[in-house]
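Most newcomers find our protein records easier to grasp once they have seen one. The structure tokens are whole numbers drawn from a learned vocabulary of backbone shapes. The record below serves as our worked example for the rest of this section.
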Amino acid sequence: DTTLQLIVKQFPALREIVIGSSDNAVLGYSPASVSSLSALACALPSLTCFESSEIPLTENAIITLASLTTLRYLSIRLPEGATWARLPSALRGDRPFLNIITLDLVTTTQAYIAFSAAVKPPNIRSLCVCLSDVPPLNLISTLFTSIRHQAPLQTLCGIRICHTEVVGASMETWETSIIRSSDLRPLLDFRHVQAFHISLRCRYALDEAVYADMAKAWPDAEVLLIAEGHSCRHDRLPNIRVLVPFAIHCRYLRDLGIRFD
């Protein structure tokens, strides 16, 4: 806490904060560290970049960051149980995260759904939703609909949906969550996608039509990685003929990841 106070005192115009470990080890945190880091975030009005995907911020700290017009890049872990009720009055009618370009979130499914309903940055180009829990089957559809309604159709060009290591979650637990073609279709409303990556360790029940619809919806795509990892379990793998629409519609495509039968 003393160190963070010293940072604020010595560098009040600090523009970038990155909290993490140099060896990719998982950081533990206590309520005191959450409080101290949140106080730091609230005390630096010139931030352009704030990154702390291991230690969560408080709801009030995130609301403070939402008012910063200097902020361009935000990577945070969302707190549990936040209601975001103070957000409208705190911003006094302004849009949250007005000038943010990149938003990376580590979150539970329920926390993201609540956050996305209240916070709709108008200009983000890249959105990453990294789940720290196994998404409940009854929230799968809502998860993708929430992404569709949070991000702006006009500017979003990068979408990544992945997961952290979920402690105690077996493969059998993950397989209770099934992602169907209908769940992904709301994302096809984004017409400027250049990169799309989904790698949730779930079951996938995708028909071949959804691959063709992705190719048609995203002609500017350069990278499409669609549940190609070995941890992604498919009820049925597509035939190699699903490549044809991508060859026809995606002239900029340089990296395509799809598992075939």
Residues 17 and 252 are 35 Å apart (CA to CA). DSSP finds ten helices and twelve strands in the chain. The chain has a mean pLDDT of 91.
